[in-house]
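Quick question about two entries, pasted in order.
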Amino acid sequence: MSVVGFDVGFQSCYVAVARAGGIETIANEYSDRCTPGCVSFGSRNRSIGAAAKSQVVTNCKNTVQGFKRFHGRAYTDPYVQSMKSRLVYDLAQMLTGTTGIKVMYMDEEKVFSIEQVTGMLLTKLKETAESALKKPVVDCVISVLATAFDPHLGGKDFDEVLVNHFCDEFSKKYKLDVKSKPRALVRLYQECEKLKKLMSANSSDLPLNIECFMNDIDVSGKLNRGQFEEMCSEILSRVEAPLRSIMDQAKLKKEDIYAVEIVGGASRIPAVKERVSKFFGKELSTTLNADEAVARGCALQCAILSPAFKVREFSITDVVPYPISLKWNSAAEEGLSDCEVFPKNHAAPFSKVLTFYRKEPFSLEAYYSCPKELPYPDPTIGQFMIQKVVPQASGESSKVKVKVRVNIHGIFSVSSASLVEVQKSAEGEEPMETEQENAEKKSETEEMETSTEDGKQEKKTDQPPQAKKPKVKTKTVDLPIENSLQWQLANDMLNLFVENEGKMIMQDKLEKERNDAKNFVEEYVYEMRDKLHGVFEKFVSEEDRDTFSLKLEDTENWLYEDGEDQQKQVYIDKLAELKKLGLPIQERYTESVERPKAFEELGKQIQQYMKAVEAFKMKEEQYDHLDEEEVSKVDKMVNEAMIWMNNKINQQNKQSLTLDPVIKYSEIQSKTKELISACNPIVTKPKPKVELPKDEKTAEQDGPVNEQEAKEAAPTSPDKGTVENGSQSANSMENKLPEMDID
């Protein structure tokens, strides 16, 4: 089971995984742990991440970034309208009223929702994680909800200050309207981001130079950290507000804080550090990687939630970031009623059961009760219609239990509703409750009652004694709920988006395969052209080299002309055509390298077996147990192999290197294996065991009595000409291997 954390930032994204007993941040296909939050649309495919970032300037109108803040916002939202003038790509209104992004994709104008573009980026991050883990990613934790924050206090906001400053400077100095040229504006954003990072490490004047910026004009400027901090004074003044808010919410004093750890790219700005340190009156801790800490925290939270990982015990309680209230039409003539069901910082996930008294279907409206705290102008969560509510048989209002929940993702919902139907029973009969009702009572954490005046009168306790009423039993009936959530995608729209994403993934895959096929042709042209005048030069005739070189040159020209945009199969065929000429040359070179090695190995085996035969003829003790007839066979095979080898070497030495070899190294290897399989069983045959007389056997069992006898009793190792029995050696080594504990 995979355990993954995703930090989806405004400009950059990080992926962390839990494995090998720890948390690590993984790199993308460019060996970079930072993946730009960028998506680029082209005429044939999409580019996502680092590949898209490289097209920010060349394909600026169709490369989108910084779209995270448009989530959940209507196109008419003041923030969206204010951002339109700062973007190089176009925004458009979706049919649902939300914000969309207009680009040219597959040579057609398309409008993608913010959810779709975010889905594309998450798909890329998922692929990065799966590539590292070598397994599918199903469950993950993604960073979204903060306890206290300022949505306009981040690295991008500091970049905006720099961009506006240099736009004004270049307008006065060079008479250039930078914001009228999207490509120039993108380049200025890139250079300002670099300058901002340099100023964090240097307090002296730093230059900003851009060649051929606009109208072939080179521009330059300079800035130092002091000037930058003065320009950003309004932004920096907002640093303390979220800090005060978090302290108030936690009900802590500054002296209660033991240590302060800062993370996030913008926390490297010295002025930000200074203000945070001054607020807490402490030196700041920077033990964590400022960029990767959030992703690593997400991976840790995923490990805590996963049943596949055992994590050191400690508690993390998620909370509801904004207070949530419900309002409804009162059954009495009181108009609208409302109630806060989840106050700010209430623990989540959590469920509550509310009780209403109704005779007909009714609706509940959920909303965030403190709009000023929201980063969005619309506080509405959604409408929930409780259907099929009917009065009791007596005509009285029915008791309706409504279960509301904030789930593990922080999403509010009306998860269930049920009607308690009262059924009269004979007098004296015990009341009866269903299992479902008992379960409801156990899960009920808070009960709210809304009833008519009659209902209230029934609850009065100062009424005179009345006749004994028959006991009742109840039955619980589930009620359907119709949800109408603000800005939520309808199921049919969600399914359409998923289907379209699948089609785009397939198109990206096909285009990648096409580009790979084209690149293989280009790489082969460059590789063979270099080698024809290098390592392959001796293995091709001058005439063939000239013919092949001309073919390579024609192919290169074709790649940049008619072959610039061809189907995958065309490139495959073109590569096969080139290899038909180049493969024989490459094989001759490979043979010349491998053939001497193969002959050397065969020669070593021949020498070993010749030594064994010679030792047998000299009646050495090591081989005196071998059969003479079998040794003669070995002698014959060795001599034949030596004659064969010398013959082939002589033939090959007479053969030109530009022609195919007389003998291939694979044939020599086969000859070597054939010789070993025939001779090895004969020369390595073990000596038969000799049955000792009873007295000698007893002495042998008693073992040697002194060091000299122990040396004489030890087995002698074979000489260099002996081929040892491989299986026996392996078994003896295996018995000596130490035991290891594998976690």
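Here is the second entry:
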Amino acid sequence: TAEPGAAGAGMPRLPAILIFCWVYVRKYQSRRESEVISTITAIFALAVALISSALLPVDIFLVSYMKNQNGTFKDWADANVSRQIEDTVLYGYYTLYSIILFCVFLWIPFVYFYYEEKEEDDGNTCSQVKTAFKYTLGFITICAVLLLIGAFVPLDIPNKKNSTEWEKVKLLFEEFGSSHGLTALSFSISSLTVIGMLAAITYTAYGMSALPLNLIKGTTSAAYERLENTEDIEEVEQHLLRIKSKCRDGRPLSSRDRRTVQQLEERLRTLRRRERHLESIEKSWWTKFCEAIRPLKIVWGVFFIIVALLFTVSLFLSNLDKALHSAGFDSGFIILGTNLTNPLNMLLPVLQTVFPLDYILITTIVMYFIFTSMAGIRNMGIWFFWIRLYKIRRGKTRPQALLFLCMILLLIVLHTSYMIYSLAPQYVMYGSQKYLVQSNKTIDGQPRNVTFVSKDCDADAPEDQCIVTRTYLFLHKFWFFSAAYYFGNWAFIAVFLIGLIVSCCKGKKSVIEGEVDEDDSDMSDDELSVYYH
């Protein structure tokens, strides 16, 4: 009989993940400012994010794999084996989450501050390392505080309802583990997940609306933009000549005219940079290839917008279900089972009948969230409140910006599991498990044949018949974080709808959108040419 270890086949291959991360980082990395340490850090952090996202489908697969379709456990899946599998998944989570804590609170901050110091001071390396470590101590302190709070925070779920369901939830959490060390780690990761929720609201929600509409609209023609740019150059040059003609008789220009000349010359330099970039893009093979597959991009755009609307509707119905049927804020809006079904929750049980379509769909959804997050970050850049810190651009992204991007993706991936749970709560909790229910047939009021029928696992199932995924228990270990996630889902829906309206109202993007700006501080005129040729 095949062992559950075969589920490892569902995990994305590590070499494929590393190759993708290397290509992605090199695609956006500045050719002038690339550094070995920052490149390795960015690739490693991005790989950890992708591998962590794969744990959810594997967790669901393993709990489902232990049972047959008729609701009985497989021969090899006795109590000890089941416990070993659950523990293995749990240790997998904690190993990857420990690596994420290491990346977020130590490695990435240290490398970031090291390069900040390197730009300001080209002195000895030892001084730069000391200064970077000094700043990193602040992050280490925050991590230590979170671990200490998590080790001693009260975990009791405030219960206003003495129902068997809530007793069952408490029992599940007791089985999950009461170790102070595991609880401390769980609290720290949950705190980062809340930050990931804010990043998802900002970047993923916008990316889900901007990505498909950008694919549908396409970009303006490079030839057309060159024509407009040439006209702008001529106009600025004529304006400059008119102003400079005032001093032909030896009279100095007024301070106002000098400022205008300075602004126009800066504008002219920007326009000439645009001219060089547009010329480079117009002649590149990549532009011709993109024009050839334009119909395919439109099809993908339509598909992505349908998927985004499906997700939004499912998320809305799931949140509405919690608002109407959960015990409220004091319980973290935890709900066992579903009262209002949603399209995704209806689709997954149908796909369960054909292995492995349901796991392919879950993996696709996870990857969709990651790629829309990447699109959102790329389109918006990296902001700190209203201050734009960095831009993400092909071949011209600074090392610090790449480190920020990878840290944001790490945090968003942490929140992805809860997003999937919100879309398909019943499936994330039990997978495709079924359990046996006794059915008594009566004839003339007398019980006759006693039969057993299989039923999808739910909150009414006996404790020893259905195994809850470790993902579900991890997400709901702290009720106050669950409450924050609930309100975050409403904010996510609102930002998506606003982003959809804004994206619909905006015109086509420039073919060199974000590549040439007047406020660029990390511009290199040859980098785009190197990228395209």
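Reply: Confidence is low (pLDDT under 50) at residues 1-11, 157-166, 521-533. DSSP finds 18 helices and four strands in the chain. Hope that helps.
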